[in-house]
Automatic annotation (TrEMBL):
Bilayer-crossing regions: none
Compartment(s) where it occurs, according to its Swiss-Prot or TrEMBL record: Cytoplasm
Domain Enoyl reductase (ER): 20-372
Family: Belongs to the zinc-containing alcohol dehydrogenase family. Class-III subfamily.
Listed InterPro entries: ADH-like_C (IPR013149), ADH-like_N (IPR013154), ADH_Zn_CS (IPR002328), ER (IPR020843), GroES-like_sf (IPR011032), NAD(P)-bd_dom_sf (IPR036291)
Catalytic function, reaction form: a primary alcohol + NAD(+) = an aldehyde + NADH + H(+); a secondary alcohol + NAD(+) = a ketone + NADH + H(+)
A GO BP entry: formaldehyde catabolic process
Key words of the record: Metal-binding, NAD, Oxidoreductase, Zinc
SMART domains (UniProt xref): PKS_ER
Cofactor section: Zn(2+)
Protein name, entry field: Enoyl reductase (ER) domain-containing protein
Organism whose genome encodes this protein: Panicum hallii var. hallii
Matching Pfam families: ADH_N (PF08240), ADH_zinc_N (PF00107)
């Protein structure tokens, strides 16, 4: 009988061969999924600031590499022992896994799977090997075991979330990382209370998603902090009620300005930039005795954070957040439904759309501060 098992696929991918240099769209080979793995035909992907961090080789240096981790696609084939997924299912990959059985997945207060734990370094999380080769058969490294800048990719079953096919691809793509991370930080990590005050440092796509999450939770005052004056109007469309531009404060500090706006400090503060000094500002801008600071930005230069110890003793706290504290398989479909019901308005995060051949344009737009999310369509050039 004819062998019906999945075969290697030749397709196009944008490969980063040298840190910081333009990606090269070339033919690659994507191996079949192994046990507990799913091969996905990527419909669209988008560029996240975390991709820029890896592209610049600030974290987990490994080249040549296929970047990308925020995407939407269709299941092409599944490996052995995969349950609940079949060819044709519409899905999003996530950099965090959810097995539903380990202590982390079973806990209400933890979203870090220990069965297939998150690692920055390349390699599939069960065996550390790659599923990508270039046209000459040489291995290509992956990014956080997703690598969505490819027409096909292979992802562990714990990192794949089934999505209602009625959800528009662009919206589903945003929920694969940035949109979920921002909304989740307000909803699941901070647990923003109705009538509370929120300050958001950095009104990029994640910060604007935080604003939407805070609005959804009933925050009465949402302050956006950004050096770009254009973000004032953008922020308002996502729920920001007040805007602070640090470059326009004269002799006043950001912390002092926020204290004036909130009567002594914000209840919740979110750092969405990835700069240690801004993390300190976010912390000192919260209310003494009860302020919560949530760090979402990956520090660009691996610098430590400096915090006043007296503020910590007063009862303020700092919290980290992977994927907005969400459990991917449980919470992403819920957020998708909230978007479909218009409880969340994330569509405006998409400011540009290009094809795979134009992927370096997406990098240029983000680096120049001209885009929030640029959707990269795999079939746009065909």
């Amino acid at each position: 009988m004819e062998d019906q098992s999945p075969k290697p696929i030749r397709c196009k991918a944008a490969v980063c061969r040298v840190a910081g240099e333009p990606l090269i769209v070339e033919e690659i080979i994507v191996d079949p999924p192994k046990a507990y793995e799913i091969r996905i035909k990527i419909v669209c992907t988008s560029l996240c600031h975390s991709d820029i961090t890896f592209w610049r080789a600030k974290v987990a240096t490994a080249f040549p590499r296929i970047l990308g981790h925020e995407a939407y696609g269709v299941v092409e084939s599944v490996g052995e022992h995969v349950e609940g997924f079949a060819a044709g299912d519409t899905v999003v990959p996530t950099f965090l896994g959810q097995c539903d059985h380990c202590p982390g997945c079973a806990s209400e207060h933890n979203n870090l799977c220990t069965t297939v734990p998150f690692v920055f370094g390349p390699g599939m999380r069960r065996d550390g090997t790659t599923r990508f080769r270039d046209a000459h058969g040489n291995p290509l490294h992956d990014l956080v075991a997703v690598s969505s800048f490819s027409e096909y990719t292979v992802v562990d079953v714990t990192q794949v979330v089934k999505i209602d096919p009625a959800v528009p691809p662009k919206l589903a793509c945003l929920l694969s990382c940035g949109g979920s991370t921002g909304v989740g930080a307000a909803w699941r990590v901070a647990k923003v209370q109705p009538g509370s005050s929120v300050v958001i440092f950095g009104l990029g796509s994640v910060g604007l998603a935080v604003a939407q999450g805070a609005k959804m939770c009933g925050a009465s005052k949402i302050i956006g902090v950004d050096m770009n004056p254009d973000k004032e109007e953008v922020g308002k469309s996502f729920g920001v009620t007040h805007f602070v531009n640090p470059s326009q404060l004269g002799n006043s500090s950001v912390t002092e300005e926020i204290a004036k706006l909130t009567g002594g400090g914000a209840d919740y503060s979110f750092e969405c930039i990835g700069v240690s000094s801004v993390m300190t500002d976010a912390f000192t801008s919260t209310k003494p005795g009860k302020g919560k600071t949530i760090i979402l930005g990956l520090e660009k230069d691996n610098e430590p954070i400096s915090l006043p110890s007296l503020d910590l003793l007063s009862g303020k706290c700092v919290m980290g957040s992977y994927f907005g504290g969400l459990k991917p398989k449980t919470d992403v479909p819920t957020l998708a439904q909230k978007c479909m019901n218009k409880e969340l308005e994330l569509d405006g995060l998409v400011t540009h759309e290009v094809g795979l051949q134009e992927i370096n344009t997406a990098f240029d737009l983000l680096l120049q501060g001209k885009s929030l999310r640029c959707i990269i369509w795999m079939d746009k050039d065909k």
